[in-house]
Amino acid sequence: MSSRTSPVIPGFGLTLGYTLVYLSLLVLIPLGALFLKTTELTWEQFVAIISAPRVLAALKLSFGTAFVAALLNGVIGTLLAWVLVRYTFPGRKVIEAMIDLPFALPTAVAGIALTALYAPNGPVGQFATALGFKIAYSPLGITLALTFVTLPFVVRTLQPVLADIPREVEEAAACLGARPLQVARHVLLPALLPAWLTGFALAFARGVGEYGSVIFIAGNMPMKTEILPLLIMVKLDQYDYAGATAIGVLMLVVSFILLLLINLLQRRISHP
Predict the structure, then answer these.
(1) With 50 as the cut, is the pLDDT of residue 1 above it?
(2) Taking the model in full, what pTM does it have?
(3) Do the Cβ atoms of 168 and 233 come closer than 8 Å?
(4) Which of 107, 110, 190, 192 has the smallest CB count inside 10 Å?
């Protein structure tokens, strides 16, 4: 007996066919072409490119800053989503619009604005310089730029889940003697964790591939503040298409493995 349930509106075969066609045209074929391009390189050449110190430094910087930015947004985004769902206050609509601003704002504009703010001669950067550290042209500046760009992914993922949690459940737990931390741990956390992991994965994935908002504030110093997408552009400017493709494959494989692990963790939490 088939395990697939029949929906009210038929057409599974047709819709599945369209889905596979679009998925192939938009995702599978371009990625397949990426891997095919690397066949122009021998295995020794491929390993030499992806193991170069400059590439490894850029890999560590891109994935490290994206991971930290996703963690920061996991905390900040959860608080913002909680405030927007649980409370009504003047200016709430303005905050809602500000959260969506990184979606509509061109990333280059965001990068220029952040650089002007956090540069050594900027309104905030000059105070950091006086304290003995700098924000722009450092990994800290890259992390701030990624935090700005990826914040909406966490907030918009958590908001519907928080809205679906009845307040009566929290109140019932409190009436039974549960403390606020116990309510958060045993009532809210199990319901929020799968959505939180989804928002984290979306923010992390966007941060790894972010380019426009980072190149202005990064300073683009090799071995220090050079990200992998910029290194790919450098290879393309040098007409080293095979080298750029090899770095792209490296990013793709590492990103796929990390996202797969996050999805497996999410599934295990959702279906223990």
Answers:
(1) no
(2) 0.86
(3) no
(4) 190
